[in-house]
Amino acid sequence: MDTWRKPLLAALVMSCVAFVAACGSSNSSSSASSSAAPAAPASTSTPAAGSSSGGANAAVAKLVPAAIKSKGTLTVAADATYAPDEFIASDGHTVVGMDADLAKALATAMGLKAKVVNATFDTIIPGIASGKYDMGASSFSDNKEREKTVDFVDYFIAGESFITKASGGASISSIADICGKSVAVEKGTTEEADAGTQSKKCTSAGKPAVKILSFSDQNQANLALSSGRADLGFLDSPIAAYQVKQTGGQFKVVGAAYATGPYGLALPKGNLAPAVLAALKVVMQNGTYDSILKHWGLTEGAIPAAQVKINGATS
Predict the structure, then answer these.
(1) Cis amide linkage into residue 84, ω under 30° from 0
(2) Which among 7, 32, 134, 164 counts the fewest CB atoms within 10 Å?
């Protein structure tokens, strides 16, 4: 899942995936079910898999580190509880979504195949640093703290939003109003950090602290909200909007969006970022990038190729 995530909606597909969440992740063995489980998207096919991706680009392929080029596969980690960005398909194991499609398109441009695996969000960056994963494509907010450990190639813009029950839910106007409220977040996300920062502001002003409920994946955070354990859910704005839509109005977005900033593809320090940056520019130029965002209803977060950069965090 940040200046947000980030990283689905609880039980998003049949009985496998649950809700949404930016900057989050879930175990490949995890599943979730609840009364709030949303339906799967109408189509989870990969729009980037066809001829529009254009195949390998020779100039990009030259930038791929030899160790990755020799194995021919790009191992990509995603927290598959954050639809429509990343979630589990109806087969119960395949990771699909905007980030999975983009990872495949980038790998193709680099002359590689992408292996997208499900991983708990807060384990992805350590896994990249240790060499377990080549890339993290999981609604990561690019921020200065994360850039100390990994490089990012920025590719999308998003913010953070609060959700609550449509009937009888909490009423807030902004993040300043969450003092004394119980807020469900995914561990390791920007939302968890931002809720903690706001809680300190609350107590400094003589108000009750925020009760932060942190969960290992977004499915559990969503369940806390649907069961009434939490007053609010705090997650990336695109995921929040999708979650509300998929649950047929059981939830609603409440208050103003917060902390808009870039999503970044997480990569090993000083290693793969130049190749991924070049590949991203290629898939933007050939139309694959726009096709993927349109397929998942995420065109509002698109950025122009001129704004694509390595480590573009401002905070």
Answers:
(1) yes
(2) 164
